Q: What sequence folds into this?
């Protein structure tokens, strides 16, 4: 019992905080928003540390890879796993919505009447796909890398910076030592912030529950219920399969032992970026090597989003039902899957509202009127929590699969052996 409490003490505290927060939100409803500042403090503290965390973890991890072949193998494995698991997520999303009509025909007119104000939509800057891609991957001013709105550009720059340090070898040692020290400080800052997590997450969750309450219409409620069921099943079944493929029964046991903190943090904050520290720590506890965990998870925050991909399919199929569009031929089905995958890549790792560009892309590529944008915004809002959960834990599962490819089937034992060797050396020194 003592061992159980020791292993899960923080998890239990967080879970209790979320339950209390949910109860407060249900009882006091909109009045619970008075707690929002306490939740915002926690979220802001996490988000303010994201930029230095991503830069330091990516650059130091890449720079410390003394074997170029290992770096190439890790990056190649990450890409392969991200593509494979994203396609699986898209297929699951389509299969779960193909036969379930998210919108009843009689409700279509009522929903459309709610969204006749196109003024704010018309203000949206129209950009080509090529221009959006350029803006996504790069910035024209170094200072813009310090913004969370340009996280993908920051990731690209961090990888390039790390490779450049790796190429510089011993000449880069002073810089690497500095960045390692800074990385250690940042991780300690995160530990300090997490002491406030039960209060911050509880208040944040109370606010979310209290504000949404009864404002969800029938069509949206059905979408939320169906999506939540799919998310839970995907969370339990698919990630168990991934963990088993990566590490067998031991991998499954270790995965479920260490994934709960990431799950709870993602549900409460609805921010993949805010979960990076917790997720990296969880992956390391599972046994994923540090260089793989510190590369896969930050990259996954922007480039690997199982929950968002499924959500994009739901948004598309919601509009398909709403406008009576046909999705029957193989070309139409592949079109839906392709648009969902492309649109998801354009979602930045920020809380509610970061998917506007993605939603506009869905609307334009499907040929629907811009008045549909608020419809997708509401869907994004109500499925945000379970979608973020899948985004976050999916990165952990992917890091395990990458470790399996890079370090072989005994990767979990290798990590333990390295830890034992380190402890032995430290003991000998003493």
A:
């Amino acid at each position: 019992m003592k061992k159980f409490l020791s292993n899960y003490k923080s998890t239990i505290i967080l879970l209790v905080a979320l339950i209390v927060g949910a109860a407060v939100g249900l009882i006091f409803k909109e009045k619970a928003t008075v707690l929002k500042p306490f939740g915002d403090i926690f979220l802001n503290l996490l988000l303010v540390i994201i930029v230095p965390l991503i830069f330091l973890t990516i650059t130091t991890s890449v720079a410390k890879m003394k074997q170029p072949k290992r770096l190439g193998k890790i990056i190649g494995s990450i890409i392969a796993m991200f593509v494979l698991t994203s396609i699986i997520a898209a297929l699951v999303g389509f299969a779960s919505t193909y036969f379930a009509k998210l919108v009843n025909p009689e409700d279509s007119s009522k929903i459309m009447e709610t969204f006749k104000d196109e003024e704010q939509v018309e203000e949206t800057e129209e950009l080509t796909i090529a221009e959006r891609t350029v803006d996504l991957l790069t910035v024209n001013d170094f200072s813009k890398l310090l913004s969370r709105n340009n996280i993908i550009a920051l990731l690209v720059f961090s990888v390039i910076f790390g490779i450049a340090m790796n190429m510089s070898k011993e000449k880069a040692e002073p810089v690497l030592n500095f960045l390692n020290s800074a990385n250690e400080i940042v991780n300690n800052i995160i530990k300090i912030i997490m002491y406030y997590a039960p209060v911050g997450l509880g208040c944040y969750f109370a606010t979310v529950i209290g504000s949404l309450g009864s404002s969800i219409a029938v069509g949206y409620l059905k979408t939320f219920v169906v999506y939540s069921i799919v998310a839970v099943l995907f969370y339990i079944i698919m990630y168990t399969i991934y963990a088993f493929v990566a590490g067998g029964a031991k991998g499954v046991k270790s995965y479920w032992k260490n994934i709960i903190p990431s799950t709870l943090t993602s549900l409460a904050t609805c921010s993949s970026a805010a979960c990076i520290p917790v997720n990296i720590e969880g992956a390391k506890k599972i046994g994923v090597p540090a260089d793989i965990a510190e590369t896969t998870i930050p990259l996954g925050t922007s480039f690997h989003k199982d929950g968002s991909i499924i959500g994009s399919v739901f948004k598309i199929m919601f509009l398909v039902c709403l406008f009576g569009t046909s999705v029957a031929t193989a070309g139409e089905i592949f079109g839906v899957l392709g648009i969902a995958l492309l649109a998801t890549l354009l979602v930045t790792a920020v809380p509610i509202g970061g998917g506007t560009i993605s939603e506009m892309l869905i609307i334009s590529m499907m040929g629907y009127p811009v008045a549909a944008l608020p419809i997708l915004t509401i869907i994004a809002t109500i499925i945000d929590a379970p979608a973020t959960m899948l985004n976050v834990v999916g990165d952990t599962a992917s890091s395990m699969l990458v470790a399996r490819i890079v370090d072989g089937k005994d990767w979990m034992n290798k990590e333990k052996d390295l830890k034992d060797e380190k402890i032995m050396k430290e003991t000998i020194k003493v």
Notes: The chain has 20 helices and no strands. The two ends are 33 Å apart (CA to CA). The chain has one domain: 10-429. Residues 10-429 form a domain with the Proton glutamate symport protein fold (CATH 1.10.3860.10).
